[in-house]
Amino acid sequence: MMFYHALALTLLLSDSAAAFKVEPSGGKKERMLSAVNKNLSNVLAAGFISAATIMPLPGIAVAADSLVMGTPLETKLAAFGAASYPVFNSITDVSPLADKFLDLVDKKVKAPDAAELAQKGVDGLLAIPDSAITEYRGVLKQVVFSGVSSTNCVTLGGSGAAAAKLAASPAIKSVDSAKLDALKKKFTPANSAVPIKDGNICLPGSAAASEKLWVAQAELTLSMPKAEGAALVASIKKAGLQATRPALISVVPAAESVFSKNAEALKMKAAGLDVEPNVIATVKAALL
Predict the structure, then answer these.
(1) CA distance readout (Å), 44 to 123, 163, 166, 184
(2) Is-contact 104 243, C-beta < 8 A?
(3) pLDDT tens, 188-230?
(4) CB-CB contact of 58 with 22 (8 Å)
(5) Which helix (H) or strand (E) holds 131?
(6) From CA 245, how far away is CA 223, in angstroms rounded?
(7) pLDDT tens digit string along 140-176?
(8) Nearest 5°: CA angle at 63, between 185 and 280?
(9) Is 282 in contact with 65 (CB distance < 8 Å)?
(10) What span, in angstroms and rounded, lies between the C-alpha atoms of 242 and 256?
């Protein structure tokens, strides 16, 4: 369950275009590191998946000061959700990419900085208002997973194994166990709305549901209070600067093996590049 939120969290908080692309030296053809690899770079200890509708459901409020609803960011995130839907549904095993990422973190990011990133991520997630999570859970049940169950869903292959490896990583283990317990308790209501099959999370049942998922993940992430958000952004930057271009390029083969280089994957890449400037501008505005 952590993967979709991890994707959204880093998409919202990272300001590096290199997370979507890697340009080999010498001006050679641009290569895709992939949007998902970018977002997996901040897989934290929060196991939950989010979604929301463009229009509010009965009993589900949309904040008057939303930084997402009714903005270009909403439109472009929805487009990314639609473009990424067939790509996620075609994945048979995401764990090789997760393995490669964890290996990169272990070798290229200083252990104290990786630990700080995990800790700041957990602090930020704990600071999200409970009311936002309550709304989140309602949409999961009423919209995204309506009609989806463990008996009929398409899963994100390998997500269970990757989650277990992440939980055993030094960075996650460095987080105070009491905070991890609190985080699990905080998001249990939302987690319980996500179907699981053979240990892997189920994906939304349609491209329309995927669109709403990405919009809602942005809305939820941007409900993080400014102080915790700023601390997490600073930690992401510190760790991200240690991942050099050669190191990132080394991950590309694993990303391509998971997502392939077909027309649908390239369309997802283009949608990711299109939304990135809006993400950067929105996060900066939120932290002013």
Answers:
(1) 11, 10, 8, 12
(2) yes
(3) 988 888 899 999 999 999 999 999 888 888 888 888 898 998 8
(4) no
(5) helix 130-139
(6) 32
(7) 888 888 899 999 999 988 888 888 888 888 998 999 9
(8) 85
(9) no
(10) 22
Which of 219, 227, 177, 153 has the alpha carbon at shortest distance from 45?
177
Helix (H) or strand (E) holding 271: helix 263-287
Across 55-212, the runs of DSSP E, i.e. the strands, are: 196-197, 200-201
Residue keyed to tokens 């472009």: 76
* C-alpha–C-alpha distance, residues 99 and 227, integer Å: 32
Q: Are 143 and 57 in contact (CB under 8 A)?
A: yes
Q: What is the pLDDT of residues 17-52, one digit of tens each?
A: 333 333 444 444 333 333 333 333 333 222 222 222
- Tell me the C-alpha distance between 281 and 283, whole Å: 6
Tell me the β-bridge partners of 149: none
Structure tokens at 222: 């941007």
Spatial distance between the Cα atoms of 114 and 140, rounded to a whole number of angstroms = 31
Q: What is the dihedral of CA 284, 285, 286, 288, to 10 degrees?
A: 90
Give CA separation, 62 vs 54, 190, 223, 288, in Å.
10, 18, 11, 22
Residue 272 has what DSSP assignment? Answer: H
Residue 9 is encoded by which pair of tokens?
Answer: 């969290």
Q: What's this model's pTM, rounded to 2 decimal places?
A: 0.76
Amino acid at 283: V
- The token pair at 137 is 């859970």
Q: Which two three-digit tokens encode residue 245?
A: 């271009």
Q: How confident is the model at residue 282 (pLDDT cuts 50, 70, 90)?
A: confident
Of 35, 17, 18, which is closest to residue 267 (Cα–Cα)? 35
**Residue length of the chain:** 288
Which residue is it, tokens 């952590």? Answer: 2
Task: Indicate if the alpha-carbon torsion angle 84, 89, 92, 98 is positive or negative.
Answer: positive
